[in-house]
Fold each of these.
Amino acid sequence: MAATGEPVQEFFSIGDVCALTDLKPHVLRYWESQFRFLNPAKNRSGNRVYQRREIELIMLVKHLLYTEKYTIDGARQRLDEHRKTGELKREARRALDFETLESVEQELRSLLALLEGRGEGR
């Protein structure tokens, strides 16, 4: 039986990934040179196309570098440890959840500041 509803997007452009991860294209391209598992396919036009799994790994790299403050080498070692123990997918999802919550919390703080600012002007 066919599933109903919206089709699930399978591939994402670099622009889509930048919007989803809040990263710049040059950062993604640099990370591709530093992390061998970040190797998006290219479409017929030569543009990068990312799969969901790669986006999860990008979010894990972002979490390790920006939140946990690992160096590139340290993040690479940590990812290798996760891969060897079979925890890479779980850790990538956990990092995605953490980064999503951080983003929501930041948006709520901005909204609260905006609301409090309006209250003062009356």
Amino acid sequence: MSLRGVVRKATGQDVYVCHACNDCDIETRDEIDIPLSSLVQLILLNDEEALQCRTLWSDSVLEASRGACKRGLDLHAVMVALREESMRKAGI
């Protein structure tokens, strides 16, 4: 299943609504290696780098992602779904 499908199944969110406006990009110092807007684009490209990036595992980024999308995409739920998928693939 694609990453987009994983996110949609786990959250009901379709990351396709992202228009890459970059409004969701947040400042959190060294905890972001991939901005949230780029993380969504990686999901759309089915690039598994989205499951291994430092951004995904930062709790402060996870909290800051709440309400970050002006189009209503629940980035917090998306990140949680990606974390779960990453752990599933790692056998954790």
Amino acid sequence: MGDKSGIRLLANTIAHQWWGSEVSPKTLNDAWITNGMSRYAELMYLEDESGKSAMRSAIQDVSAGALAYDTVPLSTAGRLNPFSPQFQSMTLEKGAMIFHMLRWEVGDKAFLAIMKAR
């Protein structure tokens, strides 16, 4: 097996191409959908490639990042500088956690069906 250190970055970048082009946010307030799903798709790839324990570990890291700047509602993230750590934390990490919670609520089968239905 070769070096896989950049595989998560690649998975995230590919997901951003899909979610940024096909499901673009109307405003920066909706960037959590694009950024969050791109991060979550990266984690789903990690789960598929390395197993559920790798996913659990990654979710712990993402959840810590999601709480790092919990000062404004997610729906107002567009007021922040899009290159700020706060915006990135809220849209990438918190957005991914929202999708993870949705998956937990509806179950794997329904979540995957939702994702395929666009």
